[in-house]
């Protein structure tokens, strides 16, 4: 039985190992905080450069870009660039991230130096990237004031949140009653 106790670490050894693990975790968290700050500053620089583009320049860049959907969350911009490298000269790769959690949303945009690169990339629709079948389509140009959500325009309804009720008006069909919630 002495051989079984010889294999068991002492309390001091366990404590030393726990201290090493804790120090390693703290160092890793520090590196992650710095990386997050670097990524955010890069995003801010990129956003600033996009804002300076005229609408015509944005439309021209969009005409050379593709939307890439179903991208693996662990995929990097370098991996995307190398996947599309054979299509043409890649100018920019943008992986969309959630602005609060900073986690990737699962899609990206790849901009090429010319439309031939974009057309070649579209031909790579349904190809595999990191084991996932990606969707590659041409990037659409956002136009101000055009929404796909069908939520209507901005504006208020007076005080509070209005409620629309459809009421049977006794033989006259359905009538719309607009009122205030809880009043």
TrEMBL record:
GO terms for molecular function: poly(A) binding. One of its GO terms (cellular component) is nucleus. PROSITE patterns: RRM. Pfam families: RRM_1. Residues 143-164 are annotated as: Disordered. This is RRM domain-containing protein. It comes from Pristionchus mayeri. Keywords: RNA-binding. SMART domains: RRM. Residues 152-163 have a biased composition (Gly residues). The keyword RNA-binding applies. SUPFAM superfamilies: RNA-binding domain, RBD. It comes from the Eukaryota. Residues 64-141 form the RRM domain.
